[in-house]
Amino acid sequence: MARTEEYALGEYTFPRGWFMIADATEVNQTPQAIRYFAQDMVIYRGESGRVVVIDAYCPHMGAHFAKNTSSYVVLDGEQVQGDSIRCPFHGWKFSPEGNCEEVPYSPVSNPPNACVKSWPVVERAGCVFLWHDPEGEQPDYDVPVLPEWDDANWVQWKIDHLGEIDCHPIELVDNIADKAHLTPIHGSSEAQYFENVFDGHIVIQDFAAGHRTLASEVLTNYTWYTGPGILMSRMGGDYESIIQICHTPVEDGQVRVWHALLVKSADASNPDKGIAYAREYQEVSRLALMQDYEIWANKNPCFQLLKVIGDGPFGQVRRWYKQFYDPREEALKIQEKCNGRIVTKGTVRDPWPEKKS
Ligand code: FES
Ligand SMILES: [Fe+2]
């Protein structure tokens, strides 16, 4: 696994930002062990419906909050109470903010230092996102909201869990600049235009071309990263759709990946038919992503690419991506340097300049 340090990305091993950590349908009142950013955490849904993520180990004597099946706290269903969690070892109870609320056998209810780290989380469009921040600050941007999620004319996605790859996330993010892989990997033809816009914590790819599987004519893609780990793409192909691809570091040099596709119903008067088309189309989209995935899963790390004219702006994407590995102050400077629009030539709208003879 190639590590962050080898890419010289910045001060931090793991980037700042919102990251997907769970499919919301799988989070319930049974606390579950999860691991991201090389840290053990526990996720559960409180009785109010709120999703809570805390560090996995109890500050009292280090028991794991979720890896237990035999304590009577667990067997008697007393682990999640309200939105709080009780440790299976000695029964200390912690609020969703991570403060100790009760020590059942002691008059001391909140001993000093009896705090467990609680992570900021939001639930959006069937996914749980966590804010990871080496500076320990509150989020400085939001997870995108898709109004289509609650629109009856659209079919909600079912998340594809694509598992873990031993590949540094930067290699996945490179894709946003990668015009040249679109024909060999994805079967794009006759590129109409290809451009990238860098705007603070967002980078956009605007692209249109023919496509072998997702469109009978031209496929338009308006794709953007919100921060380092959430990619969305509004696609205009045979159906209108929105892709979400999330990747989250598990260890340094390893990511977990999810894919999902929100599809405009092919037939709003016949929901079953709409769902069937949406699922089929999502599968075609998943297979298109798996073409990238196979490359990522088997490639050598690329610390320095051998760039030629016709490649997209990889260098600028990597500069933009560095902002998440440095303190905010530095990140603002990086943003100022990166903001702007870059057109990659060699398309119908932006052809190569005529060769001088
Ligand atoms: S280890 Fe958690 S209450 Fe003792
Ligand atoms: Fe791709």
Write the layout of secondary structure elements.
Blueprint: E1 17-23, E2 32-36, E3 39-45, E4 51-55, H1 72-75, E5 80-81, E6 84-86, E7 93-94, E8 100-102, E9 118-119, E10 121-124, E11 127-132, E12 154-155, E13 160-165, H2 169-173, H3 182-186, E14 188-199, E15 202-211, E16 218-226, E17 230-236, E18 240-251, E19 254-264, H4 271-298, H5 314-322, H6 328-338, E20 340-343
Antiparallel strand pairs: 1-11, 2-3, 3-4, 4-9, 5-6, 6-7, 7-8, 10-11, 12-19, 13-19, 14-15, 14-20, 15-16, 16-17, 17-18, 18-19
Helix pairs in contact: 5-6
Bound molecules: FE2/S2 (inorganic) cluster and fe (ii) ion.
Residues 58, 60-63, 87, 89-90, 92 line the site of FE2/S2 (inorganic) cluster.
Question: What is the rounded Rg?
Answer: 23 Å
Characterize the biggest β-sheet.
9 strands, antiparallel
Number of distinct beta strands: 20
User: CATH superfamily assignment of the largest domain?
Assistant: Naphthalene 1,2-dioxygenase Alpha Subunit, Chain A, domain 1
Domain unit count? 2
Q: Which small molecules are bound?
A: FE2/S2 (inorganic) cluster, fe (ii) ion
Strand content: 25-35%
Q: What is the CATH domain class of the largest domain?
A: Alpha Beta
Quick check: average pLDDT?
95
Structural class: alpha+beta
Count of helices?
6
**What is the string of helix and strand elements?**
EEEEHEEEEEEEEEHHEEEEEEHHHE
Low-pLDDT stretches are: none
Alpha carbon gap, first and last residue:
48 Å
Helix content: 10-25%
Q: Determine the CATH topology of the largest domain.
A: Naphthalene 1,2-dioxygenase Alpha Subunit, Chain A, domain 1
- Overall form: globular
CATH architecture of the largest domain: Alpha-Beta Complex
